Amino acid sequence: MKVYVAADHAGFELKNTLVEHLRALGYEAEDCGAASFDKDDDYPAIIAGAAKKLSEDVARNIESRAIVIGASGQGEAVVANRFKGVRCALYYGGAGEQRDVAGKTLDMITSTREHNNANALSLGARFLSVDEAKAVVKTWLEQPFSGEERHARRIKQIDELT
């Protein structure tokens, strides 16, 4: 599977590390920039490059993913979610064990795939160690979509909004 990876200056080093990590895991990682470190770069155009490629793959029914990286990951997720068919989830660190109101233990990173079929992941580089980022990316990429009717129905409704 192809994984598009993009980052601004705040995520530049982590991006380079993750591209190599993805390749070592057997993924076809495409570095979508930034091509060099520039402390004054602006993330929207950089992130849009990866999100646009993912959106085009979605339109052609090609399975791929995107990982976008910035300081907090917030703005990067906003940009990625502007593109049709892109469902970008945000991760900037574990919040410890989480439980829903029924007491069921939740794992937010796997639920982005199981429930929302997120095809893009935005990482907050200033909140993650390299090892945590590697582990989260591996978990996220390996987690399948549940395919449950209620989740598929909701994703279809989201996709019909654009």
UniProtKB/TrEMBL annotation:
InterPro entries: RpiB_LacA_LacB, RpiB_LacA_LacB_sf. One of its GO terms (molecular function) is ribose-5-phosphate isomerase activity. It holds the Pfam family LacAB_rpiB. One of its GO terms (biological process) is D-allose catabolic process. It comes from the Bacteria. Belongs to the LacAB/RpiB family. NCBIfam families: PRK05571.1 (NF004051), rpiB_lacA_lacB (TIGR00689). This is Ribose-5-phosphate isomerase. It comes from Candidatus Kaiserbacteria bacterium RIFCSPHIGHO2_01_FULL_55_17.
